């Protein structure tokens, strides 16, 4: 993408800190976090929260930069938007996550009342086919929910750009739906393609790096060279994917709304 090549110097500092270093740190601590208790568990939880918020802020900056009119992208404008629109973005994200959680409740209820032996599974007893069939209705519900979430994700693809560029809160949801009208199937295809590419790339680098470094480190260590190297490698791949993903979302938004010069509004 020409945009990424032309503006790599302006994007790279934020990309390296928020989309590479933060996830790499969080991933490196995964083994220690799993075995932590009490105060240490709380500390690792705070670190995970901090790195997640930092990554979210960085993604907002990248989108705010790329969503500006073509040829008029300004780093100070993107930085001010990322700072001023970060809390609204968190609020919108919390609302969307809460809605997904509410949608999952009927499926959970169906699974609980199905008579499936969850205690046996937790005890390590493999379920029989007849036992699994009891979850049929719940599984159908979650399949339908997954398809709905995929559809909604496609329709909400430019929502971060809307939050940043139009200074909207929860109203960004309806605005994103209006912007993507008539584009649903194309966006669903792009989301599926991205998921496949990202999944293959991350799995490949995890396998290669994990296999190589696994011979050089203690497999029982919670902070081994394999864990750290794997986290760094995955973070590198994820950062590259995030760069192109955010650039695409920003330019998609700009293509839909037009090229009017709105930089002065945020000057």
The secondary structure category is mainly alpha
Mean of residue pLDDT? 86
Broad shape: globular
Distance between the termini: 27 Å
How many individual β-strands? 0
Helix share of residues?
over 70%
The number of domains: 1
Order of helices and strands: HHHHHHHHHHHHH
What portion of residues belong to β-strands?
A: under 5%
Number of helices: 13
Q: Report the major sheet.
A: none
Uncertain stretches of 5 or more adjacent residues = 263-267
Radius of gyration: 21 Å
Task: Please outline what is shown here.
The protein has 267 residues and is mainly alpha-helical. Helices cover 78% and strands 0% of the residues. The protein contains 13 helices and no strands.
Q: Which tags fit this structure?
A:
13 helices; transmembrane; globular; mainly alpha; membrane; 78% helix; disordered C terminus; Glycerophosphoryl diester phosphodiesterase membrane domain-containing protein; transmembrane helix; 267 residues
Walk me through this protein's architecture.
The protein has 267 residues and is mainly α. The protein has one domain (2-266). Helices cover 78% and strands 0% of the residues. α2 packs across α13, α9 packs across α12 (184-214) and α10 packs across α11. The chain is globular and about 60 Å long. Keywords: Membrane, Transmembrane, Transmembrane helix.
């Amino acid at each position: 993408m020409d945009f990424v090549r032309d503006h790599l110097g302006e994007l790279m500092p934020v990309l390296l800190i928020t989309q590479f270093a933060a996830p790499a740190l969080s991933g490196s601590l995964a083994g220690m976090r799993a075995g932590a208790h009490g105060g240490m568990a709380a500390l690792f939880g705070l670190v995970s929260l901090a790195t997640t918020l930092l990554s979210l802020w960085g993604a907002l900056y990248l989108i705010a930069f790329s969503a500006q009119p073509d040829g008029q992208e300004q780093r100070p404008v993107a930085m001010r938007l990322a700072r001023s629109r970060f809390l609204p973005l968190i609020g919108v994200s919390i609302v969307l996550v809460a809605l997904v959680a509410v949608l999952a409740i009927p499926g959970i209820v169906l699974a609980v009342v199905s008579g499936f032996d969850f205690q046996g599974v937790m005890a390590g007893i493999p379920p029989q086919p007849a036992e699994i069939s009891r979850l049929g209705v719940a599984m159908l519900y979650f399949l339908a929910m997954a398809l709905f979430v995929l559809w909604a994700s496609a329709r909400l693809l430019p929502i971060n750009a809307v939050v940043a560029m139009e200074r909207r809160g929860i109203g960004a949801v309806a605005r994103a739906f209006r912007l993507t009208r008539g584009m649903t199937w194309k966006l669903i295809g792009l989301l599926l393609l991205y998921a496949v590419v990202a999944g293959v790339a991350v799995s490949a680098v995890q396998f290669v790096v994990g296999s190589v470094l696994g011979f050089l480190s203690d497999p029982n260590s919670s902070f081994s060279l394999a864990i750290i190297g794997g986290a760094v490698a995955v973070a590198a791949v994820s950062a590259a994917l995030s760069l192109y993903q955010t650039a695409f979302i920003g330019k998609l938004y700009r293509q839909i709304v037009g090229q009017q010069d709105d930089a002065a509004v945020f000057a």
